[in-house]
Each structure stands twice: as structure tokens, then as C-alpha cells.
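Internal tracking record. Fields below are filled automatically when a chain is submitted to the structure queue. Please do not edit lines marked as system-generated. If the sequence contains nonstandard residues, flag them in the REMARKS field before resubmitting.
Queue: standard
Priority: normal
Entity type: single polypeptide chain
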Amino acid sequence: MLLRFARARVCIDTFCLNFTVDMTQAEKIQDNGKEKDKEREKEKDKEQQRGVKRPIAPAAIPDPLQEQIQSSFVIVIHPGSKTLHIGRATDTLPVTVPHVIARRHKQSGQPRFEDNLLSREGLNKPETNEQRQNGLKMIDQAIWSKKMSNGVRRTPASTEQARAYNCQIRPAVLDSTTRVRWTNTAHHPSFLVGEEAIFVNPNDCYDIHWPIMRGQLNIHCGPGGSLTAVLADLETIWSHTIQKQLDIPLKDLKYYRCILLVPDICNRQHIKEVVNMLLLVMGFSAVIVHQESVCATFGSGLSSACVVDVGDQKTSVCCVEDGVSHRNSRLCLAYGGSDVTRTFYWLLQRAGFPYRDCQLSNRLDCQLLQHLKETLCHLDQDISGLQDHEFQTRFPEAPALLYQVRLGDEKLEAPMGLFYPTTFGVVGQKMTLLQYRCQGDLEDPYDDHYLLATQIKQDQSSKSAVDRKAVSRPGGGLDADASGQAGIGELSNLPRGCGSNSSGGVTKGELELATAQGECLMVAGEAEEPLSANLSRKTAILSQFESKALGLDKAILHSIDCCASDETKRKMYSSILVVGGGLMFHGAQEFLLHRIINKMPPSFRRLVDNVEVILRPKDMDPWLISWKGGAVLACLDTTQEMWIHQREWQRFSVRMLRERAAFVW
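SYSTEM-GENERATED OUTPUT FOLLOWS
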């Protein structure tokens, strides 16, 4: 019995000793972990003092990327200048509404204000008519120079004959009244959206606002033109459409995510404000921001393409390869389908348009002209001669009328303005926009300016070290001169096509980068005059390039020419994807293909096996492709790390766009 008790006591003592040793080791490990954490904190403090950028890693926020995301809880928003495409990622087609809002006056007697889609700055100048005539002459020459499919040159139709016939036309009354009615405002709604806003009676006390113009927020000095007012209009339009068209209560948006499609060349400050509105005002749980051109390739199922987005008020061209938009290839042309509509109206007037009360200031007349352009205009040169057409006018509080009109080359000349933009008659405006460097954001300390400054300092220190080594060697003076000349050569390395003998340009971002590097080199006292002369020359080239109105075909050739390698250029020539609703004319695909083949560099005609223009991939409407690509993006596993969550945005703001955006912010 005593022996058993002794053995048990020994076992207990051994267990206690082992437990004590284990506790001591655990305490040591814990103490070592605390010391390591303290050392890490000290290293972080030192790095922050030295200005070292660390990746954003919000440890206090639980990682939400492991959640299973349902596509039915993802809303894809593609805002355009004229229309808004919005819908769930699982929808076959998005909801399409006019991107317009009517706001009731807060005070009686307040003057009315209305944005007009077909008017723009640069019109009604003394040079406008002359510029239009010159553009029309170039179009007529191009029409005559190209033979029809039967080998015969096209005979121009007589405008005088068409005018003589149209001036005799009187409308026929179809009905004394029409079913079209003004929007009922008897209950005095504070705002109206979409079609209801378009059909607001001009005598009612409402202002009409289109919050996006030419792909950018419609900031102007008139009523409702401030950034705050434009963002409020966007919030109201989107919230109303989500609630009424998608049947989603606004209080449930905290369970939904949003994919926002933005132009390739955009104002970053505006994008920041829109994302802030989506997350903090409307209350989405997470947001992805992606480029329209990349989403267009997703929607069409292409890995690489030169994406040509012809919208209502702007046209953008960009080369996309494997989901990446090439920065140097981006172009934004400040014209689109509305400019074609306005030009068609000018040609109709010249041909004696029988509807003589038509005015560009009347929004319903603008709708009629848009319809006539879409149904009558074409790019098929085999259609020639004078032809008779009919159209109806159905306006509120007016009889339904039937008109006959005889037209000839006007139907072809108007859409050809996209290739000869001087026909649009816009004077003194920037018609070609390039990718530019962001002006900086106080909430984003590690922006382009920070990276540029650190790069310049690093280049300075490395250059000084090289110079010291060169001076220490015999004949070092020659090496130093060669180094200085190399610096000037690097400064002048701008994108292809920026020389005086080319039709290309240089991006503002790279020009500013070159300017900053030039200032840095001039501070060191090297080659002041050559650098300043070089930079001033390139600034003049850039200004001249942006003021020049590039035709659509020349813009495509310039964009492809800015690609880095011949292999990439070959891919782009073999896949030119046209999206948007501005080029949906009969014969547009063959017409654009003919102009690209005739104007592409001769060296590439031998290298490119097949030049292809894709207008309707998978038989989809061109205006739908980018939105469909956003819906495809919501279903990809690789996009899970691109979501910007509400709590992350509240903590880090615009820095999350730099870390999470799929493109270089």
C-alpha cells in the first residue's frame, strides 16, 4: 500500500514538473512574440519617418473576401451621357432609361434652366459655316472617289431638286389629337426622372439637367452645375431607377454590391466623389470600378482588341490586351452621335426640310431628329440617287401629322462626319483628349506626384554616383558629356507619332514627367537651353494635336500605332471592336474596314493576315456590350480581391482605388 502511494506521488510530482516547464516555455514564447511585435512597431515608425510606402493592410477590419458572392446581389451601373444602363449581374438585359432629371423650382418666378443635348460650345461662330462647307467638300470628294460594288462611280444627287420638291410639301393630318401627353405634375413632385423628365411641359416650373456631358460630370456655372448638385442628380436618378425599375428597396442596398463602369480617360476626382456617393450615401456594401474598354472585351469574349466606343457625345479609342488597357493608346474624341444628329439637321434644312417648326432648343424635336438619323442615315455607298421618305410628328396638345421628304446624299454625308469632324462646325474647342497626369489628392499621399518626386531623387543620386565614378577615371569628361546627352535623349523619348511628320501625339502625363525630369536636370546646371527648347517644342506639338479634330479612322490608326510591339499591333488590327450606339448605321462595318485597310501603314499590310472590324459580337447590340462585360466581371473569381468595402473606404478613402483598381490609378 505504501509502495503504491509512493509511486503515485512520484507521478504527480513528475506531471507538475513537466507542466511547470511547459508553462515556462509558453511564457517565454509569448514574451518573445511581444518583443517581436514591439520591434515591428518601431520599424514601422522608422519607415514612416523615412517616407517609405507600405501596402495598405487594414488589420482592424476583418477580411470579407472569403464571402460567397451571389451575382443576383451585384448591380452593374454603366452611366452614359444620354442613357443609363443599370441592372443585376444576372439580368439578360439591363434597364435603359434616359439619363436626365427634372427638378421643381423651390421658389415661384424662378427662371427656367434646361441643358440641351444637341447644343455645345464652339458653335455659331463666324468660322462655323465655312468650316462646315470645307468638311462637306471633303466628304463629297471621298464619296466620288470610291467606286460602288458594280465598279461605277457614284453620281451625286441634286440638292436643288430635293429642295424644290420639299418646299412644296404640306403635312397631312392623321389625327386631331395624339396619345402623347405631357407628364402629369398636378401632385407637384420634387423631381422627375427619365421619360417623365423629357415630357415635362415647358410651362411647368422645372429645370432639366443631364448630369453627364461628353463622358464627364456636367460641371458648369449655371443653375445645378456645381459638383454637389450634379452628384445629387446622379444619386436621385440611380436610386429612383433601382427602386422603381429593379424593385430593390433603398434600405436593402447594404446587402448589394455595385460595379461601376468608367471611361478610360476620366477625371479621377469625379470618380472618387461618385464612389464616395455609392458607398456612403446610397449605402452599397462594396464597389468595383473598372474601365469601359476592358469590360467591352469581357462582354464580347475577346482577349485582345482595339476598342472603339462611339457614344452620343464622345468617342473613345483604346487598345486592350489580356484585360489591360494600354495607357499610351487611349484617345477621347469630343464628338459622337449627337454631333451627327445636329449635322443631319443642318443638311435637312439645306434640302428644304418640310417640318419647318423644328428647333434644336426643343427637346421633343431633338428626339424626332435622333429618330430620323437612326432610321434614314447609312454608310452604304451603293445607295444613291433621290429617295422619298415619310415620317410622323406626334407631340402633346398638337395634331398628329404625316410628312413626306425627298433626300439624296444627306443620309450618307451626315454619318461621314465622324471621319471628317470639321463638318460638325465646332470652332475653338479641344476635340482630341489624351491621358493626362492627375493633379493630386490630399487624401492620397502616395499618388503620381509622390512617386515622381521619389523617382527623381533616386535618379539624381544614382546619376551623381555615376558622374563621380566617371570623373575619377581617365577621360571621364567624355563619359560625362555622353551621359548628359543620353539624358536629353531619354527626355525626348515620347510616344510614337509625336513628331512633326506624323499624325500622332504625346500624353500629358509623360510630358509632365519629362518636364519634371528636365527641371531636375537643369537644376544640376546641365544643358539648360537644349532642354527648355525641347520641352517647349513638345508642348506646342501637344497643344496642336489636341486642338486638331481627328477622324475616327485616323484615331484608330494612331491608337494602334502607340502600342509597344509589332505583335501587339498585329493583334489590334485583326480585332477592331466597335461598341456604343453612335455607329449603328447600315454599312458601317464595311465602310470602316475599307478606310482602315486603305490608310494603315504599308508595312503592316504584309504582316497582318486579316483586318477585321467587329460590330456585333455574338449578335449583341453594340450599346449593350460594355454593360454585359461588367456583368461577366461580377462572376469571375479573380475579381474578389478588387472589391472596395464600405468600412475600408471610410478608413482609407481614395487610397483604396490605388490599391484595388484593376487599372493604374
